[in-house]
Structure to design on (102 residues):
């Protein structure tokens, strides 16, 4: 298992799109597994923040390109030191997807 794969699964820095690490991560995990790891990372990072109460739940689901773009933008912010950045729309989408799976 590559270091990138281990980092993604452990919730460490996730590579953003258009980098060699991102390509390696998607290749080693597959896109669906990368998306699941990305969702888990967002949920873990926001676990202790009380943001779920104020989220609007009426949004339509994000498309795959929108999800990828939002994940990449959020991870880019986190990796550059903006650890408190929150994409409420992405977070609401993740929660809705998790509820639908359950």
């Amino acid at each position: 298992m590559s270091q990138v794969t281990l980092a993604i699964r452990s919730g460490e820095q996730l590579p953003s799109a258009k980098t060699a690490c991102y390509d390696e991560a998607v290749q080693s995990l597959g896109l669906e597994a990368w998306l699941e790891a990305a969702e888990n990372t967002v949920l873990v990072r926001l676990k202790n923040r009380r943001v779920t109460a104020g989220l609007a739940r009426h949004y339509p689901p994000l498309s795959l390109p929108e999800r990828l773009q939002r994940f990449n933008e959020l991870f880019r912010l986190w990796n550059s030191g903006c650890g408190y950045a929150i994409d409420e729309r992405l977070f609401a989408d993740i929660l809705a997807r998790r509820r639908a799976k359950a």
Notes: The helical segments are 3-10, 20-29, 31-46, 64-79, 88-101. Residues 3-101 form one domain. The two ends are 29 Å apart (CA to CA). The chain is about 65% helix and 0% strand.
